[in-house]
Amino acid sequence: MSQTKTQLQQLCEFLLASLQPVIKTNNIDAWQERGTLILSGDDKGCDGYEVAKWKHNAVIVFEQFPHRRINPYNLLAMVSAYLIDSEWPRDVYDLDDPEIDIDVVSKDNATVLIKLQLLDDIELIPDDAGPVQFNGGCYRVSLVPINIAESVDTVVSLSDDE
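Above: the chain's sequence. Below: its structure in token form.
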């Protein structure tokens, strides 16, 4: 599975899907700023590595948010629900709670600014043509596959010595 979508992209897609058809794609803008790479180099198995976590400030802006048609608390609840469901250990990585600014522009529209901290894993898998030189090999950015056991064999031994 290629690591093609950031937490910010996923959150924006979630919000757009939840607010359609009232909110359109051209009413939302988002970007990352002031990030920190938390270096790790953890071996994830399957020849893959987590080389870092990308902790950054994310900004989401809704232009022409119809605050009379959509209760702004619904938007606040959606952001909260997404962050809780993402199961990131926000306290472990000291991620700040979201800050929200609502500027009423007219009786029907507002500009909503959401600032929050997000965290993305940066993982590598081997690829002979990959652009990343690491650990003596070539890699590409991708989520490391997770192998899940389909069955488990157990052996139970009872001893009469006890």
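The CA atoms of residues 65 and 110 lie 5 Å apart.
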